[in-house]
Amino acid sequence: MKFKHGFLLGALTGTVYALLTAKKTGPQLQQEIAAYFEGLSDGVGQVRESVAQFSQSLTHLSDELNNTLKPAMKDITDRVETFEFETAPRVDAIQKHVENINDAVSNLDAMPTADQREPLPKH
Asked: In sequence order, which ranges of the chain are alpha helices (DSSP H)?
C-alpha cells in the first residue's frame, strides 16, 4: 500500500511541477498532460498485468512442486531406507573383518622384530 501512495504522490508532484514551470500555451500543455497521464495509466496497467502473470506463475510453480517434488522425495526416502536395511548385514560383516584385520596388525606390532630376537645357538 505504501508504494501505491508514494507513486500517486510522486505523479501528482510531478504534474504540479510541470504546470508551474511550463512555457507552453494552454492547449499544448493540456495535450502533454493528457499524454503523460495516458502513458502513466498504460504503465500502471502493464505493472498490474505483470503482477497477475507473476502470481499465476507462482501458483503454477507451487502446484508443480506439490505434484512432482513431494512424491519424488518420498520415493527417494523410501529407497534409501530400503537400501540401508538391505545392506546393514553386509556393513556389519565388513566391520567385523576390519576389526579382525586391525587386531592382526596390532598383534604384528607386538611381535619382536628380527633385531630384538635372541640369536639361535650354533652347533
From this structure: 2-21, 26-64, 70-110
Residue 95, pLDDT above cutoff 90: yes
- CA-nearest of 12, 19, 21, 20 to 40 is 12
What are the grid coordinates assigned to 84, written together?
540401508
Radius of gyration over every alpha carbon of the chain, rounded to an integer in angstroms: 41
Distance CA 22, CA 14 (A): 12
**Those residues with Cβ within 8 angstroms of residue 24's Cβ, 6 or more apart along the chain or in another chain:** 32
User: Are 24 and 32 a contacting pair, CB within 8 Å?
Assistant: yes
CB-CB neighbours of 90 under 10 Å: 9
Q: With 0.90 as the threshold, say if the pTM is over it.
A: no
